[in-house]
Amino acid sequence: xxxxxxxxxxxxxxxxxxxxxxxxxxxxxxxxxxxxxxxxxxxxxxxxxxxxxxxxxxxxxxxxxxxxxxxxxxxxxxxxxxxxxxxxxxxxxxxxxxxxxxxxxxxxxxxxxxxxxxxxxxxxxxxxxxxxxxxxxxxxxxxxxxxxxxxxxxxxxxxxxxxxxxxxxxxxxxxxxxxxxxxxxxxxxxxxxxxxxxxxxx
Length: 202
What we know:
Number of helices: 5
Helix content: 25-40%
Number of domains: 1
CATH architecture: Alpha-Beta Complex
Low-confidence stretches: none
CATH topology: Maf protein
Mean pLDDT: 93
Oligomer: single chain
Distance between the termini: 15 Å
Order of helices and strands: EHEHEEHEEEEHH
């Protein structure tokens, strides 16, 4: 049986990043939609890792593939680490990121530069056909900028300022972003775990 990976998301921006980073595994990577899996999973965990695990295990029950799921979000220190695990549902699930980003900028309007620290956190879980669950995590530190800038990213990228690049994570190239991003770090760590796991099996 041919190995394949199903990534539990319908987000095309995310799938692009995932495929770039996992390309050298030599295993086809399908989105949940491409795999023909339709399931509503209630992510009611108390952490990014818990939510990723819930999602991966729920989808894995419906396929014989390796299922990867991530839960990621933005933590803004000035807002007591909000929106955190509620990042996707912040201000309502169907609220556009343009509105969410502008709202966060307004909340930080009076925040001095040193209080604008923030990070993106990503946890990834891999549910394997034999019942094993692997997890990894990645963090990208930065600050909340002063305006929306950049077209390359998605979600909160246009307000997430990276001092080392002098611009937001929506203004750097996809290749640069994959090197430093929370998802890039978590995926590379997961890739190593998968390699080790399957090498042990041989």
